[in-house]
Structure formats: C-alpha cells, structure tokens
Design brief:
4 strands, Rossmann fold
C-alpha cells in the first residue's frame, strides 16, 4: 500500500454526462479492487453551464442499471486543479485543447484524453447529451474499458 494518494480528475464540457460517469465508474472500480483509499477522484467541466447541477438523469440511470453509484454536483475546472491533480483525463480533443488553454504556465498534472486508454482504440468519448440512450450505454462501456486499462497502466489489476 502506498503512502500517497493518486489524484484523478475527469473532465468534459459541462460535467453532467461523460465526466461524471467516468468518475462514478472509476470510483466503483477502485472500490471493487479495495484500493479506493489510494485515490482521490473528482470530475469537472471546462465550461460553467451546469455548475451546481446534478448529473444528467440518463447518465445517472445508466450507472444505476449497471450497479454503479453516482453522487456529484457539477463544477468547473479551476486553476488549482492543474497542480492539485496528478492526472486530468478528458473526454475529447476539444476538451483537451480547452484544458491546455486554461492551464497556468506552470502545472504538474498530466493532461490527456481518457480514451487513449481504450483497448479497442476508441479515443473519443462522444458527448451523448443530444442523442438517444444508446450513447450513454456506449459511454459506460467505454469508461469501464478505459478505467481498467488506466488502472493497469498504474500497476493495478
């Protein structure tokens, strides 16, 4: 067991669909593995549209039907996040571009797309907000694959 925690922040545009789902899936995975004390996990959005809002009902329902708890209030990425978190994992290239523009000159977090960890090579976690339920189901499966692969990259099985 390590003496420090690994801090992970998941980021999408509004912090009500993809990033909240990624946060919930990740927390569920580390809890199942018994390593949740080794991590600090949160999510945020690059935009302030939904600050203070609950996750999208479809995102929450998708997690619930898969046995994953979701408890989050939307927030926007802050300048402090870039030095507080070890890993900032975003959902698509636009979020990555926005994060790089928002980042202070000196930051310590690793900024990359969560989908880079997808063993199926599906790099973009598409925004399901304006689409049918299938997009949320697809995101859940992708977040699960990416979580497992990311944890493996950190030395966890």
């Amino acid at each position: 067991m390590t003496t420090t925690t690994t801090k992970v922040l998941f980021v999408c545009l509004g912090n009500i669909c993809r990033s909240t789902m990624a946060e919930a899936v990740f927390k569920h995975a580390i809890e199942k593995r018994g390593i949740n004390a080794e991590f600090e996990v949160d999510s945020a959005g690059t935009a302030s549209y939904h600050v203070g809002s609950n996750p999208d009902a479809r995102s929450a329902a998708t997690c619930r039907k898969n046995g994953v708890r979701m408890n989050h209030k939307a927030r926007q990425v802050s300048e402090d996040d870039f030095t507080y978190y070890d890993h900032i994992l975003c959902m698509d290239e636009e979020n990555l571009r926005d994060l790089k523009e928002m980042a202070p000159k000196k930051y310590t977090a690793s900024l990359k797309m969560f989908g880079l960890h997808d063993p199926k090579g599906d790099r973009i976690i598409k925004d399901p907000y304006y689409g049918p339920q299938g997009g949320f189901d697809r995101n859940f499966a992708q977040c699960t694959r990416c979580t497992d692969a990311f944890l493996e990259s950190l030395g966890y099985e």
